[in-house]
Amino acid sequence: MSAITSQQQSWHTRQLKKSLRAVQLRKEAAAVALVAPLALFILLVFVMPVASMISRSIQSPEVVDALPKTTSALRHWDRKSTVPDEAYRALMLDVEGNGGNNEAGSAAGRLNGQKDGFRSLFYKTTSALPFGDNDAALSAQEVKKRLIDIDSRWADAIYWRAIANESSRYTSQYLLATIDFRETPDGRITPVENGASAYRAVFMRTFVISGLVTLAALLLGFPLAYWISILPARKANLVMILVLLPFWTSILVRISAWIVILQGAGLVNKALMALHVISTPLPLLFNRTGVLISMTHILLPFMILPLYSVMKSIPSSYTKAAISLGSHPFGAFCKVYVPQTLPGVGAGALLVFITALGYYITPALLGGAGDQMVSYYIAYFTNMALNWGMACALGAVLLLVTLILFSVYRRVVGKELKVA
To answer: Where are the membrane-spanning stretches (predicted)?
Structure first.
């Protein structure tokens, strides 16, 4: 009887474990089903576009697509010895095959970036081909002679090195260009010539403008958030509605309003002249001043909201206790209250700075030529120059900076939480 009872208990135990596992699996399946739509949405609209942008920033398929036989013939060339004769024949077949289509035009532009004058050389050769009806039967030496007769530049190895540098579908040229470097036809990485590019200056300008906007938003937002946090609930809600008004207004409307306010005959200049503060209108528009004023106004709520949420949770008894122990009210505020607001300061500053890095329309409408940020050039390469590789490279650098800033913020906040 005891053996039977033991077997029954073992059977019931196994059944209970199976039931618990089944219940756990159903719960996990339900959780996955609830999370799956959001995960799929993030994958489609964020992860895949970012991955595509990063991959496009290192891709350069134009020359390989237009000159597949030529790039294949040059792929193992050491770029120091004589150009292989077979490369000349491959070039003839490629040029005759594409017939000057869009791929050939893209390849010519890409190669012209490697060596000035390549575009004219390419189009001159395209217009001179084919040689005849039996070009495929010509020997490599004969094709070489005829191509050099068309243009003597084909005898110069530097033009072939330019093609050899583009013999891969992947390139570092776009990423190098974002820091004002380039790869020469002989494979060396050198700084670009003075005046040829200024992306380092553009990035520096972007960081400076974003930093100034963040600082201005902090100086304006901190006292305003503190004032809101000590107001009664009803008044605080009313003021918060006023703070959030920019969120409910189109950005173009806000920028248009600032154009009206800041122009020479605008409200600001008229008021200052009426008060005899100035005698002539101040230049507040189409320069750095207008950009900073407008961006600060637009991004100020992103600073106030984190500050307010942190300040609202700080007990006023801490400051009162410091004052009761003999501290000056200002000293108690700086040494007791302000340190407790640092998480909000960090979150607000990070949010404003990262958002400001990607601003495009405000500097484009209110700034001058020297006030355009990285986003302006991303839009230019996307919509005007149709250079997606360069646009993606600039976007990838901005993404990297954003991730670095977020990582630094997490480390700083993590240390503060551990200390607390």
So the answer is: 29-51, 207-230, 236-255, 292-310, 345-366, 386-409
The answer on 223 and 142 residing in a single domain is no
Whose structure tokens read 């355009």? Answer: 372
Instruction: List the domain range (segments joined by +) for residue 13.
Output: 1-56
Mean pLDDT by 10 residues, the chain (420 residues): 62 79 86 87 87 87 88 86 89 81 77 84 86 77 90 90 85 86 75 76 92 95 93 89 82 87 88 88 89 92 93 86 82 87 90 91 88 91 84 90 84 60
The tokens for 357 are 């890095």
78: number of Cβ within 10 Å: 6
154 lies in the same domain as 73: yes
Q: How many angstroms separate the Cα of 36 from the Cα of each of 21, 51, 337, 340, 364?
A: 22, 20, 43, 38, 40
Could you tell me which of 192, 178, 181 has the C-alpha nearest to residue 398?
A: 178
Query: Which amino acid makes up residue 306?
Result: P
CA-nearest of 28, 141, 159, 146 to 85 is 141
Helix, coil or strand: residue 360: coil
Asked if residue 165 and residue 50 are part of one domain, the reply reads no
369 Rama sector, left if φ>0, alpha if ψ -120 to 50, beta otherwise: alpha
Say if residue 68 is preceded by a cis peptide, omega within 30 of 0: no
Is the whole model's pTM more than 0.85, yes or no? no
Residues 177 and 297 in one domain: no
Say which residues have a Cβ less than 8 Å from residue 311's Cβ, sequence separation at least 6: 225, 226, 229, 341, 344
Measure Cα distances from 137 to 84, 132, 144 in Å.
18, 10, 14
Which DSSP string corresponds to 115-149? Answer: STTHHHHHHHHHHH----TTGGGS-HHHHHHHHHH
- My answer on whether 276 and 353 are in the same domain is yes
The dihedral through the CA atoms of 260, 265, 266, 269 has a sign that is positive
Choosing from 56, 86, 103, the residue where a domain stops is: 56
Mark whether 344 and 230 lie in a shared domain. Answer: yes
